[in-house]
Each structure stands twice: as C-alpha cells, then as structure tokens.
UniProtKB/TrEMBL annotation:
One of its GO terms (cellular component) is cytosol. ATP binds at S29, G30, G31, V32, D33, S34, S35. Its EC number is 6.3.5.2. The keyword rRNA-binding does not apply. This is GMP synthase [glutamine-hydrolyzing]. Catalyzes the synthesis of GMP from XMP. The keyword ATP-binding applies. It comes from Flammeovirga pectinis.
C-alpha cells in the first residue's frame, strides 16, 4: 500500500543509490512541488543539493524574502538571486502572452545557467515536476497547438548537459502535500496555492512594468490575506488577481477618476486541468473590493471572474 512514509523511505533510498556523491542543482520556485522535491533530495544527499531561488520580480508581495527564510529554516543549502531587472528589461514592450512567457523562460534559463556554472561538478538537475505536468506538457505541447508554454517543464537547453532527476513525477498534488507533511515541511509552505512560474507576468495583461507589478502585488495581497483572515484560503484551490489593460471612469469624492480595473479569480480544482470558479460569499467580495479600491492607488474598479475551465483557462494569459 502507498503511504507517504513508505514513499519517502523508498524514494530516499533510490535517490541515494542513483546519485551517490554527485552534486544536484535545483531551482526553487517557492511552490509546493519544488519545495517538497528539494527536501526529499536533501534527505537523500544532504549538502550535495544546491538550490537556487530566483527573484524574477514577478513574485507575490514579500514572497522572496519570506520564502527564502523558510527554506533556510528547512536546512536547505539555497542561494537567493535577485534578477528582477533582467526580467523587466526583457519584458519591456512585450504584450503578447506567448512572447512574455518565452521572455520570462529565457531569462530564467540564462540566470539559472549563470548560477549553475558557479557550482562545480554538478551532474544533475533536480526538478519538482509532478504527474499532471508530465501529462499536460505532452498533451498541450503537440506540434500543432501550444496552448500555453509552461517554461518550467523541460525548459532547459540541451547544452546544460545535466541529467534530470524528478522524484515527484508519479505523484498528484494531494500526494505531494502528504509527502511534504511526512517530511515535516511546514503547512505554511504545503498549503500554498499553486502559482505559475511566470508569476504576475502573466497576470498583468499587456506589457509588464515594475510599477504595474507593485500595484498588482498590493491587490493580490489584500485578496489573499482576506481569504486567510476569513478562513477561506484552504477552501480554494487557487486564487489571484489580474491587472487589466483597461481604464474605467469612476468617482472619488467630487473628482472624476480614470483608473485601472482588476479582476479577482478563485477556483476549485483537483489538478488544474479543469476548474470551477468558487462561489465566494458576497459579503467577503464586497469587503475585498472596498479594501482594494480604498487602499490601492490607481485602481478604481474590481470585477470577479465567473468563468470555468474549460473553456476559460485559470490564468488569463
Ligand atoms: P491554466 O491557465 O493553463 O493553468 O488553466 C493551469 C495551472 O497551471 C498554472 N500555470 C503554470 N504553472 N508555469 C507553471 O509552473 C507556467 O508557465 C504556468 N502557466 C499556468 C496555473 O497557475 C494553474 O495552476
């Protein structure tokens, strides 16, 4: 019978046998999957696991600092790399969703390559790929139709010459969380909603700038913190906000305003392949909407996304 404990024991043993004294490099994203993969590998090979956590400037508010701190708390050997400006530079003027994804993926690979060259004799690339990623990258990455290019699956160029080790690639998300629990990873990390690799870059529709990121971070923070404060966070599979490339007219005191619209999205799902919008309480939505409009400069209208997947996707880009 499969239990998280038996999975941990057998996987750690296999990893030890497979990796021996080899060095492994792993890119942490702050998400559940890469975190669990890292801790599992760390159990097996200890200090031979070198983790890299890149700040792409597209993370949630305070995320880089707080996540880095929890990784250190887990005993991981992790280097935080601030590459915000490289990402913003590459994104400048790009508005097409696929162009943006590719730009973000490209810089990620560049940064990762630069950083991994500093780690001598690394032989393996560790990845937190889970089973649905394997399925989705096969099904959506057909030759004719790329729905969305997920830059973190098979996204590294051949010349990196690293062998890939993916200890979670047979597991579904709920199993990954159980394994994480068996590894004593804090709930704060395990309970996190999924978050796309390209981050807020694909939640800012149109071109991405540091200023827009700051606006969306505030909006997202109010929404996510609100879900937590109201005990709704764990009832939702994933939630976030989109900054729309649209201004609308509003009124503040006696003044006419002409400012940005944000869309809130909260979905229930098992694996992200299909999803339903969550019927969040009206009172909650009213409170969040007020808080956003009152506190976030440059936003005067909030809408709630009531589309399911399919035909809509979870992310807007
Ligand atoms: P969609 O928008 O395709 O999203 O319905 C399904 C799930 O995948 C996440 N997502 C990504 N995750 N890299 C990721 O790691 C990506 O490029 C990416 N694009 C979408 C999305 O947040 C949702 O959980």
């Amino acid at each position: 019978d499969w239990t998280p404990e038996s999975f941990v024991d057998s996987t750690v043993a296999e990893l030890k046998a497979q990796l021996g004294d080899d060095r492994v490099i792993l890119g942490l994203s702050g998400g559940v999957d890469s975190s669990v993969a890292a801790v599992l590998l760390h159990r097996a090979i200890g200090e031979n696991l070198y983790c890299i956590f890149v700040d792409n400037g597209l993370l949630r508010k305070n995320e880089f600092e707080s996540v880095l701190e929890s990784y250190h708390g887990l005993g991981l050997n992790v280097k935080g790399v601030n590459s915000k400006d490289l990402f913003y530079k590459e994104l400048e003027g790009k508005t097409d969703p696929e162009d943006k994804r590719k730009a973000i993926g490209k810089i990620f690979v560049d940064v990762f390559e630069t950083e991994s060259k500093l780690i001598e004799n690394a032989k393996w690339l560790g990845q937190g790929t889970i089973y649905p990623d394997v399925i989705e990258s096969v099904s959506v990455k057909g030759p004719s139709a790329t729905i969305k290019s997920h830059h973190n699956v098979g996204g590294l160029p051949d010349y990196m010459k690293l062998k890939v080790v993916e200890p979670l690639n047979t597991l579904f998300k709920d199993e990954v969380r159980l394994v994480g629990k068996a590894l004593n990873i804090p709930q704060e990390i395990l309970g996190r909603h999924p978050f796309p690799g390209p981050g807020l870059g694909i939640r800012i529709l149109g071109d991405v700038t540091a200023e827009k990121v700051e606006v969306l971070q505030e909006v997202d923070y109010i929404f996510i913190q609100g879900l937590k404060d109201h005990g709704l966070y764990d009832d939702v599979w994933q939630a976030g906000a989109m900054l729309l490339p649209v201004n609308s007219v509003g009124v503040m005191g006696d003044e006419r305003t002409y400012e940005k619209v944000v869309a809130l999205r909260a979905v229930s799902s098992l694996d992200g392949m299909t999803a339903d919008w969550v019927h969040l309480p009206y009172e909650f939505l009213a409170e969040i909407s007020n808080n956003i409009i009152n506190r976030v400069k440059g936003v005067n209208r909030v809408v709630y996304d009531i589309s399911s997947k399919p035909p809509a996707t979870i992310e807007w880009e």
